[in-house]
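Could you join me in thinking about how sequence relates to backbone shape in a protein? Would you write everything just below, so we can both look at the same thing?
***
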Amino acid sequence: AMGPFYCPADHGIYLDTDFYRQMDTELGATGQFARDYVIAHEYGHHVQSLLGTSAKVQAQQERNPDAANPLSVRLELQADCYAGVWAARNRDRLEKGDMESGLNAAHQIGDDTLMKSAGRTPVEAAFTHGSSAQRMEWLRRGMESGDPAKCDTFGAVKG
């Protein structure tokens, strides 16, 4: 019921395999690469932990609780970008249609799409991971560049 997540305390990635069934049957995010993208996103959080980005964001959130959600979204979008970097660097292992499958998954698990499918009006202030467009944009940026330096969601004006 929780879905995949990264635990900074033990540096573990925990995968709720029911989430993959939900992606396939309820969200329309099908294909092996859609699942790989989700795992790569969680590894992106591990990279953020190793680089100290997560700790810096947490400190900023504590200093400015009003900025907590937007900072959380930027952290999530950066993890999407890192997932794209992983895909770019493993392009030789991908099959035809994998990139599209990943982008579709990013769209289907965007906060606005999830809110709409739950019968709710999307409210940006309640986003935790970013809109479908934002998630696709940052995943694509990582896939096209293959460069983690292009994943600065905190310095970006929009996205």
Notes: The chain has a mean pLDDT of 93. The chain is about 60% helix and 5% strand.
